[in-house]
């Protein structure tokens, strides 16, 4: 089997997240940016807030909208984890999500034990230990 490139994995993760959001939340994000950084994947999702959440916010029910989002993220988190593991062929150690209901953006950080087998791992930024000490 031919190993994928980093760009192919990032593109596939993005496409599958769009499908997942559409299927599970009834909302297709307008844009997804996905990048590997060493053994982490950072995903930015634009326009991820559902119509129901927007309606709650407009009605002044901010706390309820935030609670709804927390439950939605809790429900789809295992699906996101499984989706990413299937695409990269590696276990996900940890997956964190956070959504800003005002901006409509969701951020996802995925922590991996190791990088998947890739045809071109060179473009992936690595952690610079010297910069962390500053």
Could you name the key traits of this structure?
single chain, 23% strand, alpha+beta, 134 residues
Describe the structure.
With 134 residues, the chain is α+β, with helices and mostly antiparallel strands. The chain contains 4 helices and 4 strands, in the order αββααββα. It has a 4-stranded antiparallel β-sheet with strand order 1-2-4-3, covered by helices on one side. The relative contact order is 0.20.
Q: How many whole angstroms does the radius of gyration measure?
A: 16 Å
**Helix and strand pattern:** HEEHHEEH
Residue stretches low in confidence (pLDDT < 50, at least 5 long) are 129-134
Q: What is the structural class?
A: alpha+beta
Mean pLDDT: 88
The coarse overall form would be elongated
Helix content: 40-55%
Number of helix segments?
Answer: 4
How would you characterize the largest beta sheet?
Answer: 4 strands, antiparallel
Approximately how much beta-strand content do the residues carry? 15-25%
What spatial order of strands do you see in the largest sheet?
A: 1-2-4-3
Number of E-state strands: 4
Calculate the terminal CA-CA distance, rounded to whole Å.
Answer: 43 Å
Task: Spell out the blueprint of helices and strands.
Blueprint: H1 6-25, E1 31-37, E2 40-46, H2 51-58, H3 62-88, E3 92-100, E4 105-112, H4 129-133
Antiparallel strand pairs: 1-2, 2-4, 3-4
Helix pairs in contact: 1-3, 2-3
């Amino acid at each position: 089997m031919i190993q994928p490139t980093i760009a192919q994995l990032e593109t596939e993760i993005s496409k599958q997240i769009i499908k997942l959001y559409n299927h599970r939340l009834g909302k297709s994000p307008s844009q997804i940016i996905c990048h590997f950084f060493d053994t982490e994947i950072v995903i930015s999702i634009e326009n991820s807030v559902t119509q129901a959440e927007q309606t709650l916010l407009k009605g002044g029910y901010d706390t309820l909208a935030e609670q709804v989002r927390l439950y939605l993220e809790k429900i789809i988190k295992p699906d996101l984890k499984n989706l990413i593991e299937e695409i990269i062929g590696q276990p996900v150690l940890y997956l964190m999500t956070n959504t800003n209901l005002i901006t409509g953006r969701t951020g996802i950080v995925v922590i991996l034990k190791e990088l998947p087998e890739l045809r071109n791992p060179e473009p992936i930024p690595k952690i610079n230990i010297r910069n962390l000490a500053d």
